[in-house]
Amino acid sequence: MIHTPYLLFLGDAPDHLAAKVAQGIRDWNPDAARGQFRLPGCGADMGLPDMTLEQAKAAGVKTIVVGVANRGGVISPAWKAVLKQGIEMGFDVAAGLHNLLRHEPDLAAAAQANGRTLHDVRVPTDTYPIADGKRRTGKRCLAIGTDCSVGKMYTGLAMDAEMRARGLKSTFRPTGQTGILITGNGVPLDAVVADFMAGAVEWLTPDNDADHWDHIEGQGSLFHVSFSGVTMALIHGGQPDAMVMCHEPSRTHMRGLPDYDLPTLEVLRDTALPLARIANPKARITGVSINTKAYGEDEAKRYLEEVEARIGLPTVDPYRMGAARLVDALNAI
Amino acid sequence: MIHTPYLLFLGDAPDHLAAKVAQGIRDWNPDAARGQFRLPGCGADMGLPDMTLEQAKAAGVKTIVVGVANRGGVISPAWKAVLKQGIEMGFDVAAGLHNLLRHEPDLAAAAQANGRTLHDVRVPTDTYPIADGKRRTGKRCLAIGTDCSVGKMYTGLAMDAEMRARGLKSTFRPTGQTGILITGNGVPLDAVVADFMAGAVEWLTPDNDADHWDHIEGQGSLFHVSFSGVTMALIHGGQPDAMVMCHEPSRTHMRGLPDYDLPTLEVLRDTALPLARIANPKARITGVSINTKAYGEDEAKRYLEEVEARIGLPTVDPYRMGAARLVDALNAI
To answer: How far away is chain B from the Cα of A203, in angstroms, using its nearest Cα?
Structure first.
């Protein structure tokens, strides 16, 4: 559990794209994003108050979150000077960097000396059980994709936000680093040992109120041969009552696999549904989420209408039009 | 790589079942099993020469393999006295125990002092890549199961042995601890980090001669919700040209999951084949391997005939009648 509120450390991010983790936190957990810290030369701006560490302390910030990717796998001296001072002032530090905070001797020593915690969210911190497959109370929705990086996290976050805005019981359950930094907890599933993947997903989505929905962040794709095992564990560990299919229509091949074509939504549906029903016989597919960023407004509208007619399920781009229709479909279950 | 030949350490195994790892090595790599070492009270016997450590040394043994399960997760002082002496005499030691050899300070110190290696085959020793999905030369056969522990390893070992007996090019590729101890190498797939599972299987089954077959040890089942992600990674990382379906007909439910029924062989076929064809469009199912241990001779024969008529593929119990027909089916591809 990463303590909120956060100070978003943007460092010397050359541009906005380099700070997309910070943007995710800003968009999806605005209550937690109390301020931003920028070094000279920073080209990113979250539109949050720029704060010194002293101001962040006064504003009640508990954790400095590194919201920027580091270049060349090196945590620079300029970054470290700020983070170390922050630790000495009583902040925890959280990051999803490939090279770990805990492997930096000076940061580790400062955390040790000051009783602070370094959260490396790429590394599992909990011990997960082997999945037992027992049916759990409460309801679960899992985003599945025709490919990796087609908008599964965004879809889950948008559905969760929409449900909470309606006063419905809902929790987003992150399975990747950005999601974990957004909510402050979760399972970095791609770093979990194989035998415990499904058990970790069960652990992440425990018994809950009958009318509560978990929105489980999807990973990979059944059709992406590098990561399909992780997707399978999400489908069987998550026991989803509902699945939303996510797709990005401008892809010409599977991400990183030039020889692999994307499946159609029909093939994804017909593959995922029988597999999901092994763990939850009531599983169904309730909607389609399309990332239409490659299309203009009219073209996007036409594409969504065409898919909705073909698949027969509510089809939206939640970035353009919100997730209301996807949530309506869950409530109809 | 674990160096052969082996001295099989049976310790104080109360009975034969406790020494089933040793039995696997004895059955499937008899050239490697040079002798056995038994402590007072040992109730297991591999029918190998009983050797002192000195005799094993003289016989050219390179590695002492712990072929017995330890009770209560403790490596007893009696075991350790032998293993430590062996290390000091220049043997490596290999084991698949839950508690690791390397975590025993006296064994670790002895290995360090004498330049010997402790092989804990439950722990991955190699760094695996992320799978790239590229088609590899050579052919691959994967055993898939309706459930866990239905005879997948046995089937692969039997097919490999049959092919080698015929002078065909063939390698068994272990993915579990017993298989690794049998052949001396492999990938302990259930202990690999999620992101690298499929890549580990690609690594294990690299480019080979066009007429060479890898027999990949299967793990779990697509229908076993605790481990289906591991199975999925084997299907996509292994890119099997052929799959053999394995089944144990006396099961009343999935192993360890009392609420889950086993799939039929037809459902397994119809689920696995489209998934396998994502990675290898030429994938096919070539045979059925049934563990008929619960049946008498006549009953087994009738059952096999019935399945063969139903599924339309060579159906054998390789333990009772060998794997010749399964190999014939591969050669027909």
So the answer is: 13
Angle between helices A265-279 and A297-311 in degrees, nearest 10: 50
Nearest residue of chain B to residue A201 (CA atoms): B226
**Tens-place pLDDT, residues A180-217:** 999 999 999 999 999 999 999 999 999 999 999 999 99
Instruction: Check if A148 contacts B (Cβ < 8 Å).
Output: no
In whole angstroms, give the CA distance from residue A70 to residue A59.
27
Judge whether residue B72 has pLDDT over 80. Answer: no
pLDDT(A72) > 90: no
Q: Which of B191, B223, B231 sits opposite A195 (nearest CB)?
A: B191
Quickly state the pLDDT bin for A57 (edges 50, 70, 90). very high
**Mind listing the pLDDT tens digit for each residue in B97-149?**
988 999 999 999 999 999 999 999 999 988 999 999 999 999 999 999 999 99
The per-residue pLDDT for A98 is: 86
What pLDDT was estimated at residue B71?
75
pTM (2 decimals)? Answer: 0.95
Q: Which residues in A lie closer than 8 A to residue B237 (C-beta atoms)?
A: 225
pLDDT number for residue B89: 98
Count of positions (residues) in chain B: 333
- The alpha carbon of residue B150 is apart from the nearest alpha carbon of chain A, in Å, by 18
User: Residue B194: which of A130, A191, A222 has the nearest Cβ?
Assistant: A191
Q: How many CB pairs under 8 A join A and B?
A: 126
CB contact under 8 A, B194 and A189: yes
CA distances from A9 to A39, A46, B44, B294 (A): 9, 10, 63, 64
pLDDT at A56: 98
Put simply, the answer to whether A259 touches B197 (Cβ < 8 Å) is no
The confidence score (pLDDT) of residue B69 equals 84
Q: Measuring CA to CA, which residue among B13, B66, B64 is closest to residue B34?
A: B64
Name the residue in chain B with its Cα closest to that of A239: B225
User: Which of B 164-203 lie inside 8 A of A, CB atoms?
Assistant: 189-195, 197-199
User: What is the amino acid identity at position B34?
Assistant: R
Task: Report d(CA A143, CA A243) in Å as an integer.
Answer: 6
Work out the number of other CB atoms within 10 angstroms of the CB of residue A191: 18
Structure tokens at B316: 């054998």
Task: Count the Cβ atoms, other than its own, within 10 Å of residue A211.
Answer: 11
DSSP B5-72: SEEEEEET-SSSGGGHHHHHHHHH-TTTEEEEEE-TT-----SSPB--HHHHHHTT--EEEE-SPPGG
**N- to C-terminal Cα separation, chain B:** 32
Nearest Cα to Cα of residue A194 among B63, B310, B220: B220
**End-to-end CA distance of chain A, in Å?**
32
Q: Is B142 on the interface with A (CB under 8 A)?
A: no
* Res A73 pLDDT > 80: no
ipTM of this complex prediction, to 2 decimal places = 0.94
Facing A226 at nearest CB: one of B131, B191, B225: B131
Q: Which candidate from A193, A254, A271 shows the least CB-CB separation from B193?
A: A193
